Amino acid sequence: MRNRKPATYVAADQCPQAGRERMIMPQPISLVGAQARNPERSLLRHMRDDGAVFMMGQNPDLPVMPDRPTLLDFFHYRFSDIAFMHLLQCAKLALQAGQPDKVVLACLLHDVANGALIRVDHGYWGAQMIAPYVSEEISWAVKYHQALRYFADEAAGFSYPEAYVQFFGPDFTPPEYLCDAHEEARRHRWYMTSRLITIYDIYSFQDDWSVDPAEFTDVIGRHFRQPEAGLGFDNSPVAHMWRSMIWPHNFL
Ligand SMILES: [Fe+2]
Ligand SMILES: [Fe+2]
To answer: How far is the CA of 56 from the centre of ligand 2 (A)?
Structure first.
């Protein structure tokens, strides 16, 4: 089960824009090709006709993040239950197998983009999100796990995941850019770091296995350069990605 720390919420009347109906506009990427369900026009009409506004700042339905959020704060307060469980289980398997810190941390972070930001090309997004804070090797491994998951390496102990046959159908073949990325990764000196992520990746989620995030406090402390100002507020090239998860419903 999810091991949430006590979260703080704010009452709706304490939020910015209090007293007005606050509307959440879905992200453009989730509306592409979904014209029939696209609420843009009706929400804009509601704004004009009824004085509703678009959400900016703290959404009262979400826990308030600490002023200087750490990596684990995002796990606790923002990541979906499935991502939370999945990342912790993957890292725990690597830990139990006696893998070095770099592999454990790579496993803990490999699907970080799926936590609360974006699924599409998640390995690439995730690698960028963590690049300022981890070694180049860890970020590289997260990027390339996206491609390696589709290609068996029986010698390393990795078969094509059964779950992918269900997810994508038996006839799915990866796009060319991932085939190229796989070839490139195979020749790279960090190949096994990325390959190990795919080996400890849990392809069928285990609901009944809870892992305490605190188990990874030391590994994170040793290898994740937590910014003093907090993730999202350190003016790094990726700070906006973390801020987008703090206030995911900001209209602009
Ligand atoms: Fe992944
Ligand atoms: Fe994964």
So the answer is: 31
90 is a domain residue: yes
Distance of CA 160 to the CA centre of its chain: 23
Residues 46 and 90 in one domain: no
Reported pTM: 0.95
Question: How far is CA 71 from each of CA 17, 25, 41, 199, rounded to the nearest angstrom?
Answer: 29, 27, 37, 24
Residue 40 Cα to ligand 1 midpoint, Å, equals 31
Answer yes or no: do 217 and 113 share one domain. yes
Q: Is residue 251 part of a domain?
A: no
Total structural domains in the chain?
Answer: 2
pLDDT tens per residue across all 252 residues of the chain:
555 556 788 888 888 888 899 999 999 999 998 877 789 999 999 999 999 999 999 999 999 999 999 999 999 999 999 999 999 999 999 999 999 999 999 999 999 999 999 999 999 999 999 999 999 999 999 999 999 999 999 999 999 999 999 999 999 999 999 999 999 999 999 999 999 999 999 876 777 889 999 999 999 999 999 999 999 999 999 999 999 999 999 999
The domain that holds 205 is classified in CATH as 1.10.3210
Please give the distance, rounded to the nearest whole angstrom, from the Cα atom of residue 139 to the centre of ligand 2. Answer: 15
What is the chain's Cα-based Rg?
Answer: 20
Domain enclosing residue 75, as ranges: 71-246
Residue pointed to by tokens 């990427």: 29
